[in-house]
Amino acid sequence: MTVGLITGAGAGIGRAIALRLAANGMDLALVDIDADAAAETADQVRAAGRRALPIGADVSRAEEVDRAVARAEGELGPVEAFVANAGIEGVVGPIWDYSDDVFEKVWSVNTRGVFLGIKYVSQRMITRGGGAIVVMASTSAIRGREANAGYVSSKHAALGLARVAALDLAPYNIRVNAVLPGPIETRMIRSLFAQHEQRGRTSTPKSARKLGQPEDVAGVVAFLLSDEARHVNGASWVIDGGNTID
Ligand code: NAD
Asked: What Å distances lie between residue 178 and 31, 40, 101, 114, CA to CA?
C-alpha cells in the first residue's frame, strides 16, 4: 500500500498514525481543520523520507471532504488506505441539561465526518477494486459515560457506520475495521481530565496502571491497514490496557 489519507492528522493520535504509516513506507495526505497543524505533521513525515500533502479541511463539510480526497489523489496518487480519525470531545453535563448545539457539533464531526470520509474515499476505491479503511471509534462506542451524551452516542454511531461500510464494501475488496481506544494521553484527554478530575482517576486502566500513548493506537491501525490483516473485516479492536473488562 503506498498512499494513505488521515483526518485529524495535525495532533495526537492522528499524527502518531501518520508517522507510523510513513515509517512503513506510505506517502500521506494529512487532513485537519487546523491547516498549520497538518503542515507540522507533513514536515515530520517528509523528515521520515515520505511524500506528504497537508490539507486544511473540515470533515463535517461534504464539499471540503470531496475536494480533499480529489486533491490527495491528484497530487499523490490513488488513496489505498484511509483513517477516519478526526474527532472532538463534548463533556458538558447531564442529559437533561446537555446543550443542543454541542450535541449537533459533536455529531457533525465524529459521525457525519466519518460517514463523509468513507463515502468519498470508497467511491474512488471501488473503481480500482480495493483498499482498507480504519474508523477511530472509542471504548465510548460500547459503553455509557456520564455527562457525555454527544460523544458517547456519536462514537456508537461511528462504530455502526464502520460495520455497515464493512458489509457494503466487502464485494469490492475494501476492508473496514474500527479501533476503540480507551484514554490515550493527548491534548483531548489532558483537557478533559483537567476539567473532570474524578473521570481521570476512574479512566486510568488498573491493569496497565497508565494511560495509553498515541503510538499504542498507531501500531494497531498500521496492522489493520496492512495485508497481514487481509481476513480482518468489520472488527472492533479495543485498545485500552484492559480497562473495559476491569
Ligand atoms: P486531538 O484533539 O489531540 O486531535 C484531534 C485532531 O482532529 C486535531 O488536530 C484537530 O484539529 C482535528 N479536528 C478536529 N475537528 C476537526 C474537523 N472538523 N475536521 C478536521 N479535523 C478536525 O485528539 P486525539 O485524542 O488525538 O483524538 C483523535 C481521535 O481519537 C478522535 O476521534 C477521538 O475521539 C479518538 N479517541 C481519543 C481518545 C483519547 O483518549 N485521546 C480515546 C478514544 C478515542
From this structure: 19, 26, 27, 11
ipTM over cut 0.90: yes
Catalytic site residue 151?
Answer: yes
Amino acid (one-letter) located at 186: T
What's the gap in Å between 18 CA and the centre of ligand 1? 13
Report pLDDT digits (tens) over 186-240: 988 887 777 766 666 566 666 666 789 999 999 999 999 999 999 999 999 999 9
d(C-alpha 65, C-alpha 71), whole Å: 10
| 11 Cα–ligand 1 center, Å | 7
- Taking the domain 3-237, which CATH number applies? 3.40.50.720
Catalytic residue among 98, 120, 151, 172: 151
Domain ranges, ordered by start, for the chain = 3-237
Ligand 1 centroid distance, CA of 15 (Å): 10
Which pairing describes strands 81-84 and 52-56: parallel, antiparallel, or unpaired? Answer: unpaired
Query: What is the rounded CA–CA span in Å between residue 246 and residue 234?
Result: 25
Nearest CA to ligand 1 atom 12: 8
